[in-house]
Amino acid sequence: MVEKLALVGIGKIARDQHLPAIAANPDWELAATVSRNASVEGIENFTTIEAMLAARPDISTVSLAIPPQPRFAYAQAALAAGKNVMLEKPPGQSLAEVHALEELAREKGVSIYATWHSREADCVPDSKAWLADKTIKRLAITWKEDVRRWHPGQDWVFEPGGLGVFDPGINALSIMTEILPWPVHVASAVLEFPENRDTPIAADIVFTNPDGAEMTATFDWRQEGPQTWDIDIETDGGRLKLSSGGATLEIDGQTVKKGSDHEYANLYKRMASLIQSGKSDVDLSPMVHVSDAFTLGKRKTVDAFHF
Ligand code: NAP
User: Fold this and answer.
1) With respect to CATH, is domain 122-259+291-302 assigned 3.30.360.10?
2) Domains of the chain, residue spans
């Protein structure tokens, strides 16, 4: 059955990824959009979710591609109206918000999917399989990108609830929590806040883990020139390097796989199968690490940041 979908927030990620992924998947029909200032040619647009929910009972599913701060109210309205809901990452601005949404979805008997697009990167399953029988000695995440390039003018990332550099950093944490054979937790963190902003522009994290391995993550949003989205892991059975955000896999210095981009295609495929089987998928482990880094992090004030 073709599911009718409303896409909310026609902005950067909606145009870059959601619209092409929906158009390419025969299980989905883009039936409406909700956006205050934008629309998609030929598709009915509403400026509020309430208006869409009242006018379009035929729509089964709402996909939220808005920033995390307004997301809860939109998701709550959609779930309360009996719609399945798909959440962009991070799934909310706090853990409690997402617990509440999960509970509401359960009460209403609908599916909720907290998506982690980076987990769909091509080499993530290969890395998980390769690591399964190894002892980890060292893990280093290096996620350094240029916020001006990827979030031009998006002040919400520096406002409370916008997560700052954890907006991309949580993608690395979503991969880490997927590929490691056991759970880890944050031991300490240093967060660098620009003097004029409410969220960090850089972060260094240390993790505690069962193998006693040295495990760190370095996130920085001030990286100009080449961008780095790498996870390096040394084990008793060799060295793994996941680069390009999970798209390229090296083992012992040899490239063994260079994948292509199916991340959002996979997310919409999975959402369709969750609805068909009446299930939900809400894994908050990447968000727990972010929350713990804010709780445990030592605050350092750095130079003001202006777009
Ligand atoms: P964006 O372009 O700044 O925002 C998307 C749209 O949301 C805006 O065009 C705006 O549309 C609507 N919006 C903004 N603030 C709102 C508010 N306060 N209330 C209601 N609607 C609001 O952001 P984005 O880059 O697409 O990111 C959206 C989400 O996708 C974030 O959670 C982000 O982490 C995730 N994501 C982004 C990227 C990326 O490359 N940018 C990649 C992967 C995931 P209207 O003004 O028309 O309502």
Assistant:
1) yes
2) 3-114, 122-259+291-302
- Partners of 251 in the β-ladder: 240, 254
User: Domain 3-114 carries which CATH code?
Assistant: 3.40.50.720
Cα torsion 238, 242, 247, 253 to 10°: value is -50
Sign of the Cα torsion 216, 217, 223, 229 reads positive
Share of the chain above pLDDT 70, in %: 100
Is 259 close to ligand 1, i.e. is its CB under 6 Å away?
Answer: no
Return the active site residues: 89
Residue 65: strand, helix, or coil: coil
Would you give the distance in Å from CA 205 to the centre of its chain? 18
Residues counted in the chain: 307
Distance (Å) of CA 150 to CA 154, 199, 307:
9, 17, 11
pLDDT of residue 115: 98
* Residue owning the nearest CA to atom 31 of ligand 1: 67
Model confidence, pTM: 0.97
